[in-house]
Design brief:
Length: about 290
């Protein structure tokens, strides 16, 4: 019979609330997880009864805690691959929206981005429409977005450092642009980065993309390709994303984690992080 653990995370978790959650989950042990390593508090409650999770989720929602129920504790050393989305996942911004801001059309482009992220319109169609609106912009605007606006998601560096120490391979795959993924790959020491390429002629964006477009299926396919190349089991793969374009990728991983995601993604992902940083992923593993 599988042994389950309940992971509770938050910025300030009261002891009496932990005890109540243990009671609700049928757990007899409460253990601090990675104290001092995370930017927040995390606790493991075990053994947890997965049949009693409705009350646990309701309590955590009211208290503002994150909760995840995982079977059979897996050591971090067993993880072999991390696959991540870029925009609003590894970094805090949507690059295309910030590029559009350089043209004074951020609201128009951001509205299309939001609809695509919620799964209301086809990603390929939405990306083509948005990129077309960027025609004529000087390529130097991309560098300004990278240097002035791009920031890593809280906890991202902690997560990557911990995984890279274990020899975990890292794939950054994005429906965004190689201008940003290539720089992040070099900066963060990532194994591989895949994204779309903006066409530039005479130093200006043409409003078109070059080559094959990276979409939801591409993300899932690349995850499977690299997993098989590395000879990994499915439960040795973590995938993290936030939009509808990431759902197939999340489903293809043993640990598909929605990060600060849209409602559609939160309801379909196996695990969610809604308030803590990306370092919260580390709490899932022994």
């Amino acid at each position: 019979m599988s042994m389950y653990k309940l992971i509770i995370q938050g910025s300030d978790i009261a002891t009496q609330n932990l005890k109540r959650l243990a009671q609700l989950a049928g757990a007899s042990q409460i253990e601090a997880v990675r104290p001092g390593q995370l930017a927040h508090q995390a606790f493991k409650l075990s053994p947890a009864n997965p049949a009693q999770l409705d009350a646990v989720h309701a309590f955590c929602a009211e208290a503002g805690y994150e909760c995840a129920c995982l079977p059979d504790p897996l050591p971090l050393s067993q993880i072999g691959l991390l696959v991540m989305d870029m925009d609003s996942t590894l970094i805090t911004i949507e690059c295309i929206d910030e590029i559009a801001d350089m043209l004074g059309i951020k609201p128009q482009v951001a509205a299309i981005t939001e609809r695509s992220m919620r799964g209301e319109i086809d990603f390929r169609q939405s990306l083509t429409e948005r990129v077309a609106l960027l025609a004529g912009l000087d390529e130097s605007a991309l560098k300004r977005v990278y240097t002035e606006r791009l920031q890593l998601m809280p906890g991202a560096q902690t997560l990557l450092t911990a995984l890279q120490k274990q020899g975990v391979k890292t794939l950054l795959i994005s429906g965004g642009f190689t201008f940003f993924t290539d720089r992040l790959k070099a900066r963060l020491g990532l194994t591989e980065a895949i994204a779309n390429t903006l066409e530039v002629v005479d130093g200006k964006l043409t409003g078109r993309l070059l080559g094959e477009l990276i979409d939801a299926q591409s993300k899932a396919d690349e995850l499977v390709r690299l997993r098989e190349e590395l000879g990994l089991r499915n439960d040795q793969v973590i995938a993290i994303g936030d939009g509808a374009n990431d759902l197939k990728m999340l489903a293809a991983a043993g640990f598909g984690i929605a990060c600060h995601a849209k409602p559609l993604v939160r309801t379909q992902a196996r695990y969610c992080l809604d308030s803590v940083g990306l370092d919260g992923v580390l709490a899932f593993f022994d």
